[in-house]
Each structure stands twice: as C-alpha cells, then as structure tokens.
Amino acid sequence: MANGIDPSASMAALFGSRVRRLRTAAGLTQAELGVKAHVVSTRITQVERASGARPTLELARALDVALGANDLLIDLWPYVYREAFPDWFQKFMEYSARAVVIRQYAAHVVPGLLQTEDYARALLRVGRTLGSEEQLEERVALRMGRQERLGAPGRPELWAVLDESVLRRPVGGLEAMREQLARLLGTVTEPHITLQVLAFDQGEHEALGGSLTVLTMPDGSEIAYTEGAHYGQLIEDPDEVRSFVLTYDRLRAAALPPLMSLDMIRSVMEDNHRGAKVPSRTERRRLAQEQLQQSGGGRLRGGGRRVPGRRPGA
Length: 314
Known about the structure:
This protein has helices spanning 11-25, 30-37, 41-49, 57-67, 72-82, 87-98, 117-125, 133-147, 164-168, 174-185, 238-254, 258-269, 281-294; strands spanning 101-106, 157-163, 193-198, 211-216, 222-227, 232-235, 299-301, 305-307. The chain is α/β, with parallel strands linked by helices.
C-alpha cells in the first residue's frame, strides 16, 4: 500500500496506484512525469494520492502515453469518471451498458443515445458545474462513446417515445436542432431502433413531468429508472418495476405509430409544424391498424394495445 493509499478504496485510488507503479518502474520522478504529461508535478502527486480533482480524460491519455501503459490508464478512466455521480446513477449506467432492450420515454430532451454532438454540448453546458471547456468536451465525448454500443455486436433494441415538446424546443439553436431532427429521421434505416412521438393532444398522462426508462437485462429481469430536472430514482423491486412497465406500455399505445411519428419529426424539421395536422385518435388507430397488417402484426384492441394475430397453421 504505497504512501498509505489503499487501491481498493476507490477507482481514483486504484488509478493513482497504477500511475505510481508505472512511474516507479520507468524510473521517473513526479516532476519528470509532469513534464512528459504537460502538467505540474503537484498534479501528479494529486493523481497518485487520489486527492484534488479527478484526472481528466486528456490527462489520462497523456499519462498513458508517457508511461507506455498500452491503454491501461485510458481503460480505467471511465470508472474514475463514474465516481463523480451519485451511487444510484452509477448503478443505472452499469445496468444500461448491459441491457438487451432499452425502452425510454423522453419528456424534455432527446435521449442521450440518439443525441448529436452539438445537441449534447448545448445540454451539458447549461446548468452544469463543469470547471472548464475541457471537462465539457470530455462529457460530450463520453456520451458519443456510449452511442457506439448501438452499432456494435450484441447491440440492444432501443424503443423511444418522445414527447412532442422534445421536437419543438430548439436546443442549441435552430441549426443544431435541425441536425438533431435529421439524426432522428435517420433511425428509419436502423431496424433495432423504434421511435414514436406522444402528441400534445393526448393531454395528461402518468409520466407527465418526468422521463422514464425500462431496461431488460440478459437474464430477462427488468429495472426502471425515473428522472426529473434535478433528481433520479432507480427502481429494482419487481412489483414496482411492473407498474412502470405498464405505464410505459400505455405511453407507447397512446403515441403516434412509428411512420406517423417520423412524418411529424420531418414536418417540424422543415419548419412546417404550424400547419401540420395531428390526426385524430380514430384516424391514428386506423392508420396504425394498416401498418400492423402490412407488417404481419395483429389487430389493435381498445387503448391501442396489440392483439397477436394467429400464426399460420395455428
């Protein structure tokens, strides 16, 4: 245990112990390593003792190169980063990284997995206590990095219901929002992503005021997560989770069908939303039924829920 620092105390302590071990093996003083990593020697001391500010991603990369760590420090850094968040959010991030199905209702902003860089940057810049532009860019890079899972082997199925307000609030300005809406439209070519829009005319609903995520894990278990502007809650109790799954299914049933949702997104992007006509519930049901029949699905019963069709030969 170097200098009385227990590497098992935290990920920051483990990171610091690895830096010290690599530095010692390389025969470098803290001052010499600081020169190589372009920081003062006291910053190296802070990293090794897990004191002061956590190392930034840029510093982790510089130390990795200077010490010839072969990406060891870079691979450790995300875990150090997660420690800056509350325990419940760290746990949610871990669950999300393993989920096979992600169902989200977004009440205010586009879900992180579908955000563009400019959109994410505008959101992270507001109301955050980031100390520098460097930290801001790190957060943006991490968010973009999490999106890589959607294109990787074993990617999860993503089903997102967006409140209409998500489309109409020009986060980052009109041009950034246009690019974000174009990104949403691009999901039409990705069979593992489904988008729906919950139109304003649906009025009040069970999740009004907050966002909801339901995760399905590899073993089939489910976890729910609710979030508001300044809070979040992870729900793991099976009975409570079932109630949130039901809430999500009701939101999904009340939302516009996927093709009509894309039409609305396109209309907003083209600045024609003022003249766009949101179809009535009866018309939506009729069009949804047509889509289900075209895709070989069943019919809809009251409330928009699907009734499985008969299988051939059944």
